[in-house]
Design goal:
This protein has a single domain, classed as Rossmann fold. Helix content is 26%, strand content 24%. The chain has 5 helices and 13 strands. The strands form 3 sheets. Strands 6-3-2-1-7-10-12-13 form an 8-stranded mixed beta sheet, sandwiched between helices. It has a 3-stranded mixed beta sheet with strand order 9-8-11. It is globular, with a radius of gyration of 16 Å.
Length: 198
């Protein structure tokens, strides 16, 4: 199938296909992705990880099992973002327990509860899992249109990793803005793509 190159049409086409993927297939795919991730040197060397709670009802991978594993690791700390809808920005919070520390927030996404003592600056983070809808092999990405990650990634100096189905990674370059920040690594069920900026 010939995919449109226009960003909004491409995102719509890919999200439609992703949403048609069964929950079983999504879970099997993410199980393989998680296997690759846990063996990745960049992940093994990271101590402070900003994750995200995948929204299964929107076709995202259910990341909860990965988040729980990170919490259980003695040499790692997990952080999750909370949407500030007024500023279109993300506030970051330390997570110790996936039951006690989170609640349903903006867009129906599970987010950290507001606990000032758990809030941290971006400088505390050395690896980010970046959600997205469409990618290319140079690490460019389309999000979901709200722009929450844009300013965060512009200020971030660490490693950026995305999880994706093979069909969401394009062989042609995505049309992005000059200030858009690509991810460093894309993990699919069949390969680890180390982005080479073009």
């Amino acid at each position: 199938m010939e995919l449109p190159r226009e960003p909004q049409l491409l995102r719509k086409a890919i999200l439609q296909k992703r949403n048609q993927t069964s929950l079983l297939d999504r879970n099997l795919a993410f199980s393989t992705i998680k296997f690759y991730l846990l063996d990745l040197p960049e992940f093994q060397n990271a101590s402070s990880i900003l994750g995200y709670y995948g929204k299964s009802s929107s076709g995202e991978f259910d990341t909860s099992s990965l988040l729980a594993e990170i919490i259980s690791m003695k040499n790692k700390r997990l952080f999750l973002p909370r949407c500030d809808s007024e500023k279109i920005a993300l506030d970051l919070y330390f997570i110790q327990n996936l039951t006690d520390d989170i609640e349903k927030g903006a867009y129906g996404i599970m987010e950290p509860k507001i606990r000032i003592e758990h809030r941290v600056p971006l400088t505390n983070i050395d690896l980010i899992f970046v959600p997205g809808s469409v990618f290319d092999r140079s690490g460019r990405r389309y999000g979901y249109g709200a722009g929450y990650y844009d300013s965060l990634l512009q200020k971030f100096q660490g490693i950026k990793i995305a999880f994706a189905f093979e069909f969401t990674v394009m062989d042609f370059p995505l049309a992005v803005h000059s200030k858009d920040v690509p991810v460093d690594i894309i993990i699919t069920p069949s390969e680890i793509i180390r982005a080479i900026p073009s």
